[in-house]
Write a structure and sequence with these properties.
It is built from 14 helices and 13 strands. With 476 residues, the chain is of the alpha/beta class. The chain folds into 2 domains: 322 residues, Zn peptidases (Aminopeptidase); 112 residues, Alpha-Beta Plaits (2-Layer Sandwich), CATH 3.30.70. Strand 1 and strand 2 form a beta hairpin. The longest helix is centred in the last third of the chain and has 23 residues. The N terminus is likely disordered.
Length: 476
């Protein structure tokens, strides 16, 4: 008897349910299945995998969705770790995307001090394990609400690999997988909780491959032509260029190949660049300039250079009706609430960071801005958002001051701190999707806003036609 009363009290004391019966079904499903969803998230966190190598992570999400009645098409767009899962049929098609790739060098234990699980191994320093699990839970919850409320249409989950490098969504877009989608929704961990009404930065990912002639660096240096000289001369030229670009520009690179040992003139060398700006047109202009610098470096070093565009993404196109719908549902759900123990852990993680932090976490919902804001990040959602009306939110998942792509974020993604975002994100996405199924006028308003913002824009990309994603084999 006491156990039954306790169970009732848990339900009564949980977050208030909406008056909308379909949302009540969805929210209850999310709560009742929270332990399973957290397990999925932690399984992905415990097995971090780099872009296009998310073999275990994609299987984890596929199994979760199939066990909840979704039809799954695997290996879409020529990527073995991508998939599309569907429930229902017909229009509208409301989609939710999930990411699950990790970052190189950010292996981290679920602890408030820097402590890698595997030295120099990958880790979820962007919280993608949280995204995949919460987004999948939202999709399943919506399917349950559709069944209970007899709502018509298709709820779809896009398993999108390689957000951090290679741009999995772009390959899926090029394969035509988003053609029949009416609305796309998603979320991302952040330092604050808010509906997103902002542009991201456009970004182009480029590899500059220099080819020279090998020779003994001491006995026959005059016979060699150093590909590394080409890379370094190019980098010097780009660094001089930085003085003459717009304030919002970002140019960063690593040298991915520089030679085997010093006494051999390197015949092959390569640098890997990300070129960013608030607007894609400015990225195109900088790419042209940097390409000329690379060609000049090849002339100076008497080498050859091959320029390969690996990915190219526009800034995210914001959508006001979707931002307002997400904001309404976010306020219905509420932000994550943290314990004093979690605040203590957060303050410990803040110790090596610069800044005068007013608190450990953001525990409120940021107001939706009246005007479109400008974000500093880039994402492969950008191109999709120029083809499908898209909306998203951020949920506080790590302490104030912690930079995204840091060990602090990786640690929180494996702690209760980050796991709390799953409930908030899943309910907000589910609630927004249900609004879209029940209210055709909201879908149409979102599409109208989408068309208005695109009007007169010449959409073009640097991507070569009919390209194929790199293929990796799973280690046995």
């Amino acid at each position: 008897m006491r156990a039954g009363i306790a169970a009732i009290l848990v339900l009564l004391l949980s977050a208030p349910f909406p008056s909308d019966p379909e949302k009540e079904v969805a929210f209850r499903w999310i709560e009742q299945n929270a332990a399973t969803t957290r397990k999925v998230s932690l399984n992905i966190w415990s097995n971090p995998e780099l872009a296009l190598r998310e073999f275990k992570s994609s299987r984890e999400l596929i199994q979760y969705l199939q066990s909840n009645g979704f039809r799954v098409e695997k290996g879409v767009a020529g990527i073995s770790t991508s998939f599309v899962a569907s429930s229902g049929s017909g229009k509208p098609v409301i989609a939710i995307y999930g990411e699950y790739d990790a970052l190189a060098g950010l292996s981290q234990k679920a602890e408030p001090i820097r402590s890698p699980l595997v030295e120099e191994g990958p880790g979820h320093g962007c919280g993608h394990n949280l995204i995949g699990a919460a987004s999948a839970a939202a999709a399943v919850a919506v399917s349950r609400a559709m069944e209970a409320g007899n709502l018509k249409g298709t709820i779809r989950f896009y398993g999108t690999p390689a957000e951090e490098a290679a741009g999995g969504k772009n390959y899926m877009l090029e394969a035509g997988l988003f053609k029949d989608v009416d609305i796309l929704l998603g979320w991302h961990p952040g330092a604050r909780t808010q509906a997103n009404f902002e542009y991201s930065k456009a970004v182009t990912e480029v590899r500059f491959k220099f080819k020279g002639v090998a020779a003994h660096a001491s006995s026959a240096p005059h016979l060699g032509r150093s590909a590394l000289d080409g890379v370094e001369l190019m980098d010097v030229g780009v660094n001089f260029m930085r003085e003459h670009v717009k304030e919002d520009s970002r140019i960063h690179y690593v040298i991915t190949k520089g030679g085997g040992q010093p006494n051999v003139v390197p015949a092959d060398a390569e640098s890997w660049y990300y070129i960013r700006a608030n607007k894609h047109q400015d990225v195109l202009d900088m790419f042209e300039w940097i390409s000329h610098i690379a060609e000049g470096a090849a002339l100076m070093s008497r080498t050859q250079v091959e320029i390969q565009v690996a990915d190219d993404s526009h800034e995210v196109l914001p959508n006001r009706p979707l931002a307002e719908a997400i904001d309404r549902n976010l306020h219905l759900v509420g932000p994550p609430k943290f314990t004093e123990e979690e605040r203590t852990l957060a303050r410990k993680m803040q110790e090596p960071l610069k800044g005068n932090f007013q608190g450990a976490f953001a525990e409120n919902i940021e107001p939706l801005p009246d005007q479109v804001a400008q974000g500093l990040y880039s994402t492969d959602l950008g191109n999709v958002s120029w083809n499908v009306p898209s909306g998203s939110l951020g949920v506080a998942s790590y302490p104030f001051g912690a930079p995204i792509h840091s060990w602090q974020v990786a640690a929180c993604a494996g702690m209760s701190i980050g796991q709390k975002a799953i409930d908030v994100a899943a309910k907000t996405l589910a609630g927004t999707a249900i609004d879209l199924f029940k209210n055709p006028a909201l879908v149409e308003a979102s599409k109208k806003d989408f068309q208005e913002r695109k009007k007169g824009y010449n959409y073009r990309l640097l991507l070569p036609p009919n390209r194929k994603a790199p293929v990796f084999q799973e280690a046995q």
